[in-house]
Amino acid sequence: MSRRPIALLSVYNKDGIIEFATELIALGYDLISSGGTARALTEAELPVKDVAEISGLAACLGHRVVTLVPHIHGGLLALESMLEELEQLGYPWIDLVCVDLYPLKAEIENPEATRESVIEKTDIGGPTMVRSGAKGRRIVICDPKDRMPVIGWLKEGKPNEKEYVNALAAKADGIIAEYCLSSARYHSAGKIDGMIGTQVAVCKYGENAWQTPAGLYSTGSDDPLALDKFEIVAGQPPSFNNFRDIDRMLQTATHLTAAFSGLDLAIAVKHGNSCGASFRHKGLDCENILRDTIDGDKRAIFGGLMLTTFEIDELRADIILTHGMTESRRLLDGIVAPSFTSEAIKMLQRKGDKCRFLANPALASLGPDSLDTTRQLRQVRGGFLAQPNYTQVPDWGTLHDPNHESLCLAWAIGSTSNSNTITLVKNGMLIGNGVGQQDRVGCCELALKRARDAGHDPRDSVAYSDSFFPFPDGPKVLIEAGIKAILTTSGSVNDEKTRKVCGDAGVALYTLPDAEARGFFGH
Q1: Range 131-134 contact pairs with CB under 8 angstroms and sequence separation of 24 or more
Q2: Residue 453: is its pLDDT beyond 70?
Q3: Strand, coil or helix: what is 412?
């Protein structure tokens, strides 16, 4: 016998539910609902049957038990082979379930939240209906953004039904998993942790060609600088390494703007570490920012990535292509900016679309609140390590040095480069970044070598060290090269020797406690 399809609607957020229900009714669905959702549908004069009418049981225990009845879950879990039994029991076959959940995450993030308030905002009936609907392979909707696309799919005659329903069920399982993980993380005070993500981009391979499959997964963050918020406006999809480099450039850029707001800046990276960087106060000569960034290391930037906080137009594209070049044009692997003009993209495109162009308007308004504060997880064999993000920012108001802006740039770069690091900046531009060395003297020597190899005179530049100097030999290398100011941390038994070496040479030395300000990154 033919029957009318039934939809079960139970939502915390009522926005758009009337329009969705109206579309379902037009498609021939009967509606079942409960509580506030049933009232909202009734007030909109839409025909709806309350769950209590089906089960014969009123909501009880302070409304904690409403839909947790066999009449509902039987209708979601039954197989087609069980239709006769379902009819004998008097349970309706439910074809579609639309549920959103109590705002547990919002309550957890509420500064005034208590364990009791979090428990009260922990949904049980909703997740249980979603799981039952997913197992029964009904049409399950627990993301409001999926409501109208489902309506469109129903109107099209349900093409590829098994695949579509399965995708909705998988998404529902993922949402419930994240919901339960949030509760476990809160109640265990972080002793239980993890990450749930949805693949939003496929990479050709991982760091190396044999590492497949690889991709970018989104946690659904509303962070405007989350990588899934960057639009690919031209070129090939970003590679795994491109995404890693973009994430690193965002760390460096947001560190700088956390120290000084109202900046225009550009950063170039190669293998995750800055090889060029410069900034000006907003509106003051973006073209020279690009020139200084390129001049940082013309050799290393070739084939690298660049990020700017300003639009790339034809003039700026020409600088990227030709500044400092004599016979050919500069090739980059990708450019990230708030926006691009169409002509600039045409100018910068590479054969085979090997230059990627990613746009995100949020880059134009980086400020003190742009730092990534999410907890960092890193997989290790058999588990993962967890730590707070890189959010330590010195109080630059206490640094009374005529070169404090250059020291700040050196810090922003050095504290987001692979440790150990010594970073050299001169006249507001990066000239040498000595990263990832096993000893601090080696960092100093590498930073100076990179500066000189790029054609820079390190005299009168400033240096940042991402941790203290265990001996004064590192500062001596910098002093002999003509560095005029050093920012580092204190904590060595030889701190006084380092201070004396710098003081005798007339070099300004600024130190912060290592326990508070060490800048190790990517260890």
Answers
A1: 131/172, 131/173, 131/176, 132/72, 132/73, 132/76, 132/77, 132/97, 133/76, 133/94, 133/97, 133/169, 133/172, 134/168, 134/169, 134/170, 134/172, 134/173
A2: yes
A3: helix
Q: For residues 48 and 42, is the Cβ–Cβ distance under 8 A?
A: yes
Question: pLDDT digit string (tens) for 152-184?
Answer: 999 999 999 999 999 999 999 999 999 999 999
Half-sphere exposure at residue 446, Cβ-oriented, CA atoms within 13 angstroms: 18
CA atoms within 13 A on the CB side of 519: 31
Q: What is the pLDDT of residues 53-77, one digit of tens each?
A: 888 777 777 777 878 888 999 999 9
378, two tokens: 């890193």
Which of residues 35 and 398 earns the better pLDDT score? 35
Question: Which phi and psi angles does 147 have, rounded to 5°?
Answer: -60, -55
User: Is residue 52 packed enough to be buried (19+ CB in 10 Å), middle (13-18) or exposed (0-12)?
Assistant: middle
The residue type found at 202 is V
What are the structure tokens assigned to 98, written together? Answer: 């639309």
- Helix runs in 17-146, H state only: 17-26, 35-43, 51-55, 70-77, 83-89, 104-109, 115-120, 125-135
Asked if 420 and 438 touch (Cβ cutoff 8 Å), the reply is yes
Here the tokens at position 402 are 């005529």
3-state helix, strand, coil in the chain (%, to 5): 40, 20, 40
pLDDT at 1 over 50: no
Cα 511 to Cα 44, 48, 288, 470: the distances in Å are 67, 69, 31, 13
Query: What 3-state class would DSSP assign to 337?
Result: strand
Query: Which residues have CB under 8 Å from 333's CB, separation 6+?
Result: 242, 303, 304, 305, 354, 355, 356
Q: How far apart are CA 128 and CA 315, in angstroms?
A: 58
Q: What's the one-letter identity of residue 50?
A: D
From the CB of residue 45, how many other CB atoms can be counted at a distance below 10 Å?
A: 8
Beta strand 334-337 with 356-359: parallel, antiparallel or unpaired?
parallel
CA angle 327, 297, 275 (to 5 degrees): 135
3-state secondary structure at position 71: helix
Distances (CA, A) of 305 to 164, 274, 482: 38, 10, 31
Confidence of residue 2 (pLDDT cuts 50, 70, 90): low
**∠ CA 272-275-279 to the nearest 5 degrees?**
110
Contact 321, 348 (CB under 8 A): yes
Contact 102, 118 (CB under 8 A): no
Per the CB < 8 A criterion, the answer to whether 59 and 52 are in contact is yes
Do 92 and 67 meet the contact criterion of CB atoms below 8 Å apart?
A: no
The amino acid at residue 74 is G
For range 494-522, the mean pLDDT = 96
Q: Which long-range contacts (CB under 8 A, 24 or more apart) does 146-149 make?
A: 146/171, 147/16, 147/20, 147/98, 148/20, 148/23
